[in-house]
Specification:
Helix content of chain A: 40-55%
Number of strands of chain A: 10
Radius of gyration of chain A: 23 Å
CATH topology of the largest domain in chain A: Immunoglobulin-like
Distance between the termini of chain A: 35 Å
CATH architecture of the largest domain in chain A: Sandwich
Order of helices and strands of chain A: HHHHHEEEEEEEHEEE
Radius of gyration of chain B: 21 Å
Strand order of the largest sheet of chain A: 1-2-3-4-7
Number of helices of chain A: 6
Largest interface: A-B, 50 and 51 residues
Structural class of chain B: mainly alpha
Number of domains of chain B: 2
Strand content of chain A: 15-25%
Strand content of chain B: under 5%
CATH class of the largest domain in chain B: Mainly Alpha
Helix content of chain B: over 70%
Oligomer: heterodimer
Number of domains of chain A: 3
CATH topology of the largest domain in chain B: Rna Polymerase Sigma Factor, Chain: A
Chain lengths: ~220, ~170
């Protein structure tokens, strides 16, 4: 395949990381460069598969990443001085006391959430909601909002759309996507900032998981 | 760079440029826009008509000529859509069921192929495409250079192509 300087832009173009001028320049280029277009189409396919099937494909990587975290911690501890060790031990004891005191009280409250490394993912225990689309700015109001379905089947998802932090609309569904009604799309205007979020509920109405809020903006036309 | 007016093969507009125009239209309008194929058809027809009328004078390449028509039509479509949105019908099932089956099969093949890759390649794909870290972040995380990250991504792509076409 021909070597072309534009090839380095492919991933940034597909992830919408190029500024408008660079984007247009690259678009004009791939209309003239079959080699770049072929490579971009292949990349696009690869990214689509990685994004949609990633949870299955990368099971081992999740485990390896967790294991690496432990090794990293071990390395840190080897650098501590005796004084730091003593302080750490005291802190650890205090932390344990806090944990043993706090955990029994938390059992009756809402589940604990913790933020995953993905900016747009928040999960509880084994449940995780990952928003698929939209996660970027768009040129026109997108009809379909989609996320990764949780493993369990009896989940009801509640989708929220916010405009500058205020809730614009929400709806519940058992599917892993929702189509915006026309009246909602009409409320959404170019240039405004929006965000969306999905919460998952059990049949008893208990919250199982909550995604991060993903911001997006509808670009003004030409 | 491009061909001049005399060399334009109208058949080539369909075979060579249709996939490029389709890609650009879907990227701009979103894959869930039900009428993206209509937009592509209109662009191709428009290009052929303009060539027949002699509006392509070879001042730019044919690729740039088609790119310009495509960009204008996309902007028109977005403007038009925002005007008629009030009466626009709900999107129909997307898109062609045959296309979906083909893509699904390819997706399965690709999934299997990625799982067959060596861990060092899968790890890069995981961090770079799945977690969307930058090249530099991936490099830092794996203790390799950014250049090596790009090399591993490119090599993975080549291996996947081989595994799928086997």
């Amino acid at each position: 395949m021909k070597k072309c300087n534009f090839k380095v832009l492919i991933d940034d173009y597909l992830f919408n990381r190029l500024d408008e001028d660079k984007k247009e320049e690259f678009e004009e280029h791939y209309f003239n460069c079959p080699s770049c277009f072929e490579k971009m189409a292949e990349r696009n396919e690869l990214i689509a598969v990685v994004k949609s099937k990633g949870q299955t494909i990368f099971k081992d990587e999740y485990i390896a990443e967790a294991a690496k975290g432990e090794t990293w911690l071990e390395k840190i501890t080897s650098f501590l001085t005796p004084r730091q060790w003593a302080l750490s031990t005291v802190s650890a004891v205090l932390l344990l006391v806090a944990i043993f005191y706090v955990i029994p009280n938390l059992k009756t409250t809402t589940p604990q959430f913790y933020i995953n490394e993905d900016a747009f993912t928040v999960r509880t225990a084994d449940n995780k909601i990952t928003l698929i689309s939209p996660i970027i700015d768009m040129k026109t109001v997108q009809s379909k909002f989609e996320w990764v379905k949780l493993d369990r089947e009896d989940v009801e998802y509640k989708v929220y759309i916010y405009n500058n932090g205020d809730m614009l609309w929400s709806e519940t569904t058992k599917e892993n996507f929702i189509v915006l009604p026309e009246e909602v799309k009409l409320l959404m205007t170019a240039g405004e900032k929006y965000s969306w979020q999905v919460k998952a509920f059990s049949p008893e109405g208990t919250i199982i998981s909550i995604s991060g809020k993903v911001r997006f903006k509808i670009h003004k036309g030409e | 760079m491009g061909k001049n007016k005399k060399e334009i093969d109208l058949e080539e507009i369909h075979t060579k440029y249709r996939p490029i125009v389709s890609f650009r239209v879907r990227k701009s309008l979103g894959s869930f826009t039900p009428d993206w194929e209509d937009v592509v058809n209109e662009i191709i027809i428009n290009v052929i008509e303009k060539i027949k009328k002699g509006e392509f004078r070879g001042e730019s390449s044919i690729g740039t000529f088609i790119y310009t028509i495509t960009s204008r039509r996309i902007i028109d479509h977005i403007r038009q859509k925002s005007k008629v949105l009030k009466h626009a019908p709900e999107p129909v099932a997307y898109p062609d069921p045959h296309l979906q089956v083909e893509n699904k099969e390819r997706a399965e093949l690709m999934t299997e192929a990625i799982q067959k890759l060596k861990p060092k390649y899968r790890e890069v794909l995981y961090l770079y495409y799945y977690k969307e870290l930058s090249r530099e972040e991936v490099a830092q995380k794996l203790g390799i250079t950014s250049r090596r990250v790009s090399e591993r991504v490119n090599y993975s792509q080549k291996l996947l192509k081989k595994l799928i076409t086997k």
